[in-house]
Amino acid sequence: MRKLVAGAIYLLSGALGILAFVYPFFMPSGAAPQQGMARGQDAPLLTAILVGLSVVALLVELQGRTLSAKTVAMLGVLVAVTSVLRFLEVAFPMPGGFSPIFAPIIIAGYVFGGRFGFLMGTFTLLASGLVTGGVGPWLPYQMFTAGWAGLSAGWLGSITEWTDERLARSRFASRARHLNVPILCVFGFVWGLLYGAIMNVYFWPFAVGPAEQTWTPGIGLGKTLARYGAFYAVTSLAWDLARAGGNVALILALGRPMIKALERFQRRFHFQVKGRSQPMEKVETNA
Amino acid sequence: MLDARVWFLWAVTTLVTASSTRSPLYIVVLLLITTVVGAAREAEGSRRAPLSPLRFATIAVPLSALFNGLTVHFGDTVLFHLPDWLPLLGGAVTLEALAFGALNGLTLTVIFSAFSVFNQATPVRDLIKLTPRAFHEGGVVLSIALTFIPQTTRSLQRIREAQAVRGHRIRGIRDWLPIVVPLLVSGLERAMGLAEAMVARGYGAVSGEEQPLRTQGLLVAGLLTLVAGWLAYLFRAAWRVPAMGAIALGAAIIGVTMWQTGRAVRHTVYRAREWTVGDTLVVLGCVVTLAVTLTHRDAFYYSPYPRLTLPPFHPLIGLALLGLLMPAMLPPAKKEAKRERSREENT
């Protein structure tokens, strides 16, 4: 029952966040122009509130199942390591949107699961924003998007684990283990583009430019998509390709040793302290 | 030193005001205000921003003007024509389009400048204190991360030096491997020690407690109400008022759930910060600016299209904007606060 309700919270907060982000595409074409304009003016403010609320709801649920000391310590240290990588990005500007923080978020989510990945994504953006002076109206959106990258990486990890178990019985067993890194590369590439595309949507309704690239409430899904596509291609595609390519390069270069290191520590973190009445022993639990 | 919440209100007020206008006069007034406030805080020994607003402006204003000027072919004052066969760029380049692009760049600079001041003036420790009690564990994670960042930076430096002594040079991404993996492993070793210390001090004593089903149910109800309200808002123009009501109800349910979850966490402060007269004055200044901005939206309106004209300036609005200058008019922080800040930076 609890798992079902928790699943409903994930689903609803995800749906709310996605609906909030993609509202420009759903302003119906049938709406009267005045109504469309009136809603066009207050919709961006509502979007910010909805994204914030969906992050709050998900954090309350994720934290509600009290985090163990091991998870808190590991999460804190991994966030610190990834934030240091963001220092490098600030100190030495890298090509386009390339950022070294996404690969660790994706890999950590892949190894430790969706819950850990979500927290890692949100806290990395928050902590690095605090120390690099990056706090601004964009931060909740960055936290939400990076959190979802980590959460979906956890789901990918579960899927590949399930597939590995099935393949272990087949003749492809030896090859299955080597597929992790290529799968993560594709995933990192997709999220490299997706992160930019999602982050654009939050300011696109305010953006000015040629009519065929700007948002007008009530023009219909097809036209809005075409305009957004043109806007994205002109302003962001090259920038985001650098981020996507950077993710692939980092995962290719560092993915396998990082996964090995994290898996080794995942096993080491499986300790539980028993009370005095019981003998001290190592027991398998989830970190 | 002002309260972190007051600084946040100041930054948000500047953001709302700057977003409400494209009049160059008001934007320049706002830019001057943020610059003066930033300079006053810097004189008190605040953190230095990695990118100064002036440097940001030198990038944002010309880029925005160029992009808008080359892609928007609207306006009466035509400067020159680009060949029509050029996709997107072909057509008249007008003074109005260039001016509008530059104004957008200036608005972005004001927003960037306001949040730079916020980041400079607010110590990280105060920002962590703003974490709601419901996110107590998130606050702990954040505190650990921020405490470990200096150690990790030193660790990175040591590993780089050690690898350099062995003749290792960074030429491509693969060369990061001997640096990133030891950095990760040493960080995880520290996490291991920290986790053991936390367990030994009883941190894990409450682990394994499940989220009450009632809390989960309330979250589901709040999210469902929000989704329903948002869908009604998007697809049923006639249901605008009930849709807004549903969104407000959903937000209230999630807010109450967060408050209830937070009540279970005991919050203690070693030395509570007192609310000062300066805090009240800055809040009053922000309230005046915000009230005038929201009630006089027409007076803020300006568009350089179709022909560039002189922007109007209402003295009342100009005076109201000065409310944001309040942080710069307060007496400088005491030496003790300065010392505390420098101690924090050193640690």
In the CATH scheme, the class of chain A would be Mainly Alpha
Write down the secondary-structure element order of chain B. Answer: HHHEEHHHHHHHHHHH
The main β sheet of chain B shows up as: 2 strands, antiparallel
Number of helices of chain B: 14
**Net shape of chain B:** globular
What would you say this structure looks like, in words?
The complex is a heterodimer of chains A (about 290) and B (about 350). Chain A has about 290 residues and is mostly helical. Chain A has one domain: Arp2/3 complex 21 kDa subunit ARPC3. Chain A is about 75% helix and about 0% strand. Chain A starts with a helix and ends in a 19-residue tail after the last helix. The C terminus of chain A is likely disordered. Chain B has about 350 residues and is mainly α. Chain B folds into 3 domains: about 200 residues, no CATH class; about 70 residues, no CATH class; about 50 residues. Chain B contains 14 helices and 2 strands; from the N terminus they run αααββααααααααααα. A two-stranded antiparallel sheet of chain B has the order 1-2. In chain B, a hairpin with an 8-residue loop joins strand 1 and strand 2. The longest helix of chain B is centred in the middle third of the chain and has 30 residues. The two termini of chain B are about 20 Å apart. Classes of the chains: A mainly alpha (about 290), B mainly alpha (about 350). The interface between A and B is large, with 84 and 95 residues.
